Amino acid sequence: MILPTGLPVPSDDGACDHLPGARMPALSLPSTGGDAFRVDLVPGGAERLVLYAYPRTGRPGEDPLVPDWDLIPGARGCTPESCAFRDHAGELRAAGATVAGLSTQDTAYQREAAERLRLPFPLLSDASLELTGALGLPTTRVAGTTLLRRLTLVIRGGVVEHCFYPVFPPDGHAAQVLAWLRDHR
């Protein structure tokens, strides 16, 4: 839950420069909430959808995909990031946003994390890479697995209004998103 010091900071390689202003595809992704989740529609009662993408959550006691996981810029911190969005969920709602997490992990794996971390929002699975491909989201391959690089989309009216990329440190990112939402009411 606490990030180690000295993690490598990801750099902005321009991989998300095309996203602000992009129309979200009319796709439904499997969700830990049990229903398919439309990524182009902001759920009722909210003005914006905050969709944060992360490489993968781990499980307590499991080894990372590779021994040098902490040396991959932006890889470490998925659980602290999700917990920060959980802890700020009420404030994010008050700022007009609903939240969902996104990874390429399957829904069963994500469901364990959502329950263990008591997340009040769904985690969405893009295991088929359908959304990733449609939007050209940045990925990385680790141990034969395609993972999303950490980013956050703010979606309003079916369009990407803002993109946070790269995201670092992940445990402070929810507060950064909240500040942006408050400044852009």
UniProtKB/TrEMBL annotation:
<keyword id="KW-1015">Disulfide bond</keyword>
<dbReference type="InterPro" id="IPR036249">
    <property type="entry name" value="Thioredoxin-like_sf"/>
</dbReference>
<keyword id="KW-0560">Oxidoreductase</keyword>
<keyword id="KW-0575">Peroxidase</keyword>
<keyword id="KW-0676">Redox-active center</keyword>
<dbReference type="InterPro" id="IPR050924">
    <property type="entry name" value="Peroxiredoxin_BCP/PrxQ"/>
</dbReference>
<keyword id="KW-0049">Antioxidant</keyword>
<feature type="domain" description="Thioredoxin">
    <location>
        <begin position="18"/>
        <end position="185"/>
    </location>
</feature>
<protein>
    <recommendedName>
        <fullName>Thioredoxin domain-containing protein</fullName>
    </recommendedName>
</protein>
<dbReference type="Pfam" id="PF08534">
    <property type="entry name" value="Redoxin"/>
</dbReference>
<dbReference type="InterPro" id="IPR013740">
    <property type="entry name" value="Redoxin"/>
</dbReference>
<dbReference type="InterPro" id="IPR013766">
    <property type="entry name" value="Thioredoxin_domain"/>
</dbReference>
